[in-house]
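Raw record, unedited: Gluconate permease
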Amino acid sequence: MTSLPTPIIGLIVAVFVLVWLVLRTRVHALIAMLAAACIAGLLGGMGIDKTLSVITSGFGTTLGSIGLVIGLGVMMGRLLEVSGAAERIAWSFIKWLGKRREEWALAITGY
């Protein structure tokens, strides 16, 4: 068993690596999160096999419970984009909120 500060230090290092990879090096967020999870597991005292096992089971559980919703959302978004409906919705919100609040209109459209 590891002492308490070791996992906390591993978590702090992993968070800093995650932020650095995404913001500074522009690595894709999924790859950065996987790298940060590996760092947190290894610095937290787990072995390589245990770290990979925990990451795989966690990812599988998350994907199993939310994967269908994400897939359908991606398809719906693509249909809205191809048909021009997304652009029309955005322009409607801009017209409703005014030119001074374009950021809000686009944020509402994206939501």
